[in-house]
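Example 3.2
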Amino acid sequence: MNPEASPGPAQPAEPARPGARLRRGQRRDAIVRGAIRAFARTGYAATSLDDVAAEAAISRALLYRHFESKEDLYRAALGDIHGRIRAATRPSGDFAPERIEAFIRVAQADPDGFRLLFRHAAREPEFREFTDTLRAHMTAAAQHAMRSFMPDESQRRWAAGLLPATIIEAIIAWLDAGAPDPDRAPDAIRAMQRGIIAAIRGAPAVSPPSRTR
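Structure, written as tokens:
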């Protein structure tokens, strides 16, 4: 995976503490983190700026010093998690095991952000470009990776279109279940990938040699 989008900080900022004096950049990051938590609960339409201000432990007036509108703030929140996924997965353009692991680590570190991007923004036409861009890069990476063993183009397009959705939904379901057994989660998701590819090819799923850790 090698998604491209507007840059975001590599690591989530610490939540603001009531009464804490922060530099402007730190304050902005803290507001974005509060916005991610607030928007992840109810999505864009049902979340007010008062909700975000309360989550970030600031006044609405202070929030407006950093963001001109709710849309501006929402795009900043989506760009933040999008940028962290991009930073975590950029070193490779394929579906190598370490890329899946990196994707899961971002979700585990910020489940609110992951749900916001793939559960809420994906259903909001005015904001879904953040999600669509990631899915498009994941699909292109899957098609490229399968060229060597799936020569049929129609089968390859089918599998490549299904794999990103399976990975994303598997991670969301894993988060919703409490993120159990995180060390095995990447292997479980890769097993799902192999099963999908095998089913589309009409061949039995074969596990690759186990990796030494």
